[in-house]
Amino acid sequence: MPEPIVVTLQPLTPLWTGDADQRGNRIRETGILGSLRWWYEALVRGLGLYACDPSSGSCVYDERRKLVSICRACQLFGCTGYSRRFRLAVAGGGSAGQLTEVRILKPGTSNHRGWRIPRNVCAPFTLALHPLRPDALDDFERAAIRHTLHLIEQYGALGAKTSHGQGVVKITGWGTLPAVMETDAWIRAMKARPAKEDTNPQPAPDLSEFIGATITLDAAATSSADWWKLIPLTGLGSFSLGSNPTWVPSGPAVRARLRGWLRNSANFQNFNGNLPNERHRLMGYVPQRGEKGDPKGSDIFVTHLYKADERWSMRIFAFVPRGGNAVDHGVRQLLSDQKRLESEVAIGLGGLNVQAEPYPATVRALLGVGSAISE
Ligand SMILES: [Zn+2]
């Protein structure tokens, strides 16, 4: 059997891989696998190809039709009748600690329940991907894993509850993954693979609709010892951040500001529909007792502040249709307008000065090639 791929990750904000509130204490393989697959599906769709949505029924392998019967994501991560190409083992990491509540200092609604955030950023850990067949994890599949991890490291987050700030990671050891296949050659190989073709599920993350920015705090904004106390959240004192913190639970503060921005109809002058429905669609929704409807995950993600390479940063990213309605259009404009975004985030953080650097606008550029070439 070929050698396993071993990658080392250092979490920069708490990592959550549990499936229920009290079971996130250690890093769970299933949580990591689900997240890798989610990003890989977004990448496949972003290249104009089909990836099924396992939450609404994945592909079923047909022995006669072989790979044409299943999508490209199932070909790597497995589905009924077709086993995953590798086994994942996690080592190290340790505990995410107790979930600790923070609340908005001045909530717009009195019944807001607050957010529960793991108390600890856990230690570095390794992911070992063991091939399960002699032909598994070939150059194409290694490059697929590498691109997926690169997206997560540079622009996204790993695990669950990523829309609320968890899961920023830095990859400190890539193992044997680098330089297995040139990126454009990999994209060509991806498109040439025999696979099931179909219309992509809706809604589902698609990297061609990905938009976001890296936010960096001004050095002057973090020069005083207690600078983070400006962030308008209660409960931060429970996180034992000390005098030299490496992260600050702050995602909810910026999310609250974005929700407020989505409440303001002046931001969407050409929109005549139901603005609260749009806000729930984009930022997620949990029905309160007595309300109808299914919970909806957020399409907008806001990380906590984290310190890396001596700078304080955070990320805002979203999957919002390019050809969507006036609200989609407005959100895409906000996330690509440096000055407006800086102003909104600064207010959300209690007046801390920030700089915004928009993400690359094409899938190829997100994968690290070219920059001006449109898909
Ligand atoms: Zn599939």
What does this structure look like?
The chain has 375 residues and is an alpha+beta fold. It has two domains: 5-192, Alpha-Beta Plaits; 207-366. It has helices at residues 29-46, 72-77, 139-155, 183-192, 251-263, 275-283, 326-336, 338-348, 363-366; strands at residues 5-11, 86-92, 99-104, 115-118, 125-131, 169-173, 210-217, 233-234, 247-248, 300-302, 305-308, 311-319, 354-358. The strands form three sheets. Strands 7, 9, 10, 11, 12 and 13 form a six-stranded antiparallel sheet that branches. It has a four-stranded antiparallel sheet with strand order 2-5-1-6, with helices on one face. Helix 5 (251-263) crosses helix 8 (338-348). It is globular and about 60 Å long. The two termini are 38 Å apart. Zinc ion is lined by residues 52, 58-59, 70-71, 73-74, 79.
The CATH topology of the largest domain comes to Alpha-Beta Plaits
Structural class: alpha+beta
Domain count: the total is 2
Largest sheet descriptor: 6 strands, antiparallel
Calculate the mean pLDDT score and round it.
91
Number of strands: 13
Regarding CATH, which class of the largest domain? Alpha Beta
The general outline is globular
Uncertain segments: 371-375
Q: Span between N and C termini?
A: 38 Å
CATH architecture verdict of the largest domain: 2-Layer Sandwich
Q: Any ligands, ions or cofactors bound here, and which? A: zinc ion
Q: Order of SSEs, N→C?
A: EHHEEEEHEHEEEHHEEEHHEH
**Number of helical elements:** 9
Helix share, percent: 25-40%
